[in-house]
Amino acid sequence: MAGQAQDNLAFYDESFDVYNERRLTLMAELDKAISHDGLDLHFQPQLDLKRNRIIGVETLVRWKHPEYGFIPPDEFVTLAERTGIITPLTRWVIRNTLKAHSELTAGGFPLQFSINISAVNLKEPDFAQQVAFMLEEFGVRPQDIMLELTETAMMDNPIRASEELFRLKKIGVLLSIDDFGTGYSSLSYIKKLPIDEIKIDKSLVFDLTSSTDDQVIVKTTLEMAQNLGYRVVAEGVENQEMLDILIDLDCDLIQGYFLARPMPLPALLDWLSERGL
Ligand code: C2E
Ligand code: CA
Ligand code: CA
Ligand code: CA
């Protein structure tokens, strides 16, 4: 899997020229979209299986380009990481997530918000400090914010990444390892970091219903992670069968289309009201 991810990057570099024009247009316009609030945030609920309660949401950024239409976040986040635009992009996402958090809290739904952070952000000299300032500005408690990072991305500069994670931990925000089970996930590296949560990648969750081997992998991952004291989330739960297996395996939280798709804030408020939390 690690090799595959690297191959993808290599392929991406080679084809960079081919898409140069689209790439340049997109980056120039992403910059504008950030400064003129041309992006949107969608929120996907997370269900705590043990308490049968919605306890959090993951923030997912959306960009509808006037000419190209909907651009998948995977595409423009990758571009933004390569051009440095990820710094203002992440800042925009955090600020607007904190705003949404305040609105939901005012609406009677004090949820935890998970935000995707790029490993590139961890190399910014003052990232943790910036996060602290924003929390203060919006009056949000640090423990209401979970930052999601992929381990593969941190491997680029594990020492620098680890230092910044400890700074973030000191501020009091929670930290999650995203896409666990892809790449060279290793609990022995994660164990050295101040991590609160492990998110099992949807590719593993998809395989739950078809292969007993994959069930063993998820079961073992869950047991190890929980024994080490991490909360475990399964993402990409698309049907009842997957949910039943995850309940059986004693998973802590689930997220996926079966529960709810990512949605804008007003829809989320309606959804939460109908459900009664
Ligand atoms: P991710 O962090 O792993 O996010 C989960 C992706 O799975 C999201 O795709 C979500 O819409 C999708 N998903 C949720 N439930 C299901 C399900 O049941 N089945 C299937 N097939 N998919 C499901 P999305 O929104 O297209 O985001 C793709 C990736 O883009 C994210 O993967 C994340 O790596 C990145 N991304 C999205 N928003 C942000 C952001 O604000 N900042 C950063 N840095 N990256 C972001
Ligand atoms: Ca994520
Ligand atoms: Ca993920
Ligand atoms: Ca991902």
From TrEMBL:
The organism's place on the tree of life at top rank: Bacteria
* EAL domain sequence ranges: 23-276
Spell out the protein name for this chain: Diguanylate cyclase/phosphodiesterase
Species source reads Allohahella marinimesophila
Lineage of source species: Bacteria, Pseudomonadati, Pseudomonadota, Gammaproteobacteria, Oceanospirillales
Parent sequence residues shown: 568 to 844 of 864
